[in-house]
Write a structure and sequence with these properties.
This protein is α+β, with helices and mostly antiparallel strands. The chain contains two helices and eight strands; from the N terminus they run αββββββββα. It has two domains: 3-138, Jelly Rolls (Sandwich), CATH 2.60.120; 141-180. The radius of gyration is 22 Å and the shape is flat.
Length: 180
C-alpha cells in the first residue's frame, strides 16, 4: 500500500511530471543568459478528471555569485532565486503553487549577474510539476517523454553511435575479400 493512498483524501491522487535537468549559462562577458523554455504538456478530459491544484517543485544550483535566477510559469514570474556574495555552490529550492492549464505549459528560466564581471556562470535547474487531481490520470504526450529521455542521455547515444560506426567500418575492412 502506498503512502499516497494512506494520507490522501478518498478519490484524490497525485502525479509528478518531471523536467529533465538543464543548465542555464551566462556566456563570457555577458550580463544575462538567454531564456531557456521547457515545455510540460499535461492533458486531461474535463468530464472525467478534475484537477484540484498543481505545484512546481524547483531546485537550482549556481556555480558563481552574486547571481539571480528568474523563473516564469506560463508567462507569469513566480520566483526569483538569489545568490548573494559568498553563497555560490549552495542549492536553493522551493515549492510554488502554479495555475496549470489543460495542454501546453511552459517553464521559463533566465539568469543574470548582479554586476558585470568576466566569467561564465552555470545554473543547474531541476523541476517537477506535481498535479493533484480526482478521476482519470492526466497524460503527457509520448513524443515529449522521448524528447526528455534523449536530452538526458544524448552523450550515451553519441558514444554508442560512434562505436557502432567504428565497429561497422572495422568489420567491413577485416571481412572484405583479399585478392592475390
Amino acid at each position: 500500500m502506498s503512502l499516497q493512498k494512506l494520507y490522501s483524501p478518498l478519490g484524490l491522487a497525485t502525479k509528478n511530471y518531471p523536467v529533465t535537468r538543464f543548465d542555464v549559462k551566462i556566456a563570457l562577458l555577458s550580463a544575462c543568459s538567454a531564456t531557456i523554455v521547457k515545455p510540460v504538456t499535461i492533458t486531461w478530459d474535463p468530464l472525467k478528471t478534475s484537477v484540484t491544484s498543481a505545484q512546481l517543485v524547483m531546485k537550482a544550483h549556481s556555480n558563481a555569485d552574486p547571481t539571480d535566477v528568474y523563473i516564469k510559469f506560463n508567462g507569469v514570474e513566480i520566483k526569483i532565486f538569489q545568490w548573494g556574495e559568498g553563497t555560490r555552490c549552495t542549492e536553493q529550492s522551493d515549492i510554488i503553487e502554479v495555475p496549470i492549464i489543460n495542454g501546453a505549459n511552459k517553464i521559463e528560466v533566465r539568469t543574470c549577474k548582479r554586476y558585470p564581471w568576466i566569467g561564465v556562470v552555470s545554473v543547474y535547474v531541476d523541476a517537477v510539476v506535481t498535479v493533484n487531481f480526482e478521476g482519470e490520470t492526466p497524460t503527457q504526450p509520448w513524443w515529449e517523454l522521448i524528447q526528455e529521455w534523449i536530452e538526458a542521455n544524448w552523450q550515451w547515444i553519441a558514444v554508442g553511435t560512434g562505436l557502432i560506426i567504428i565497429g561497422g567500418v572495422s568489420y567491413m575492412y577485416i571481412a572484405r575479400p583479399r585478392g592475390k
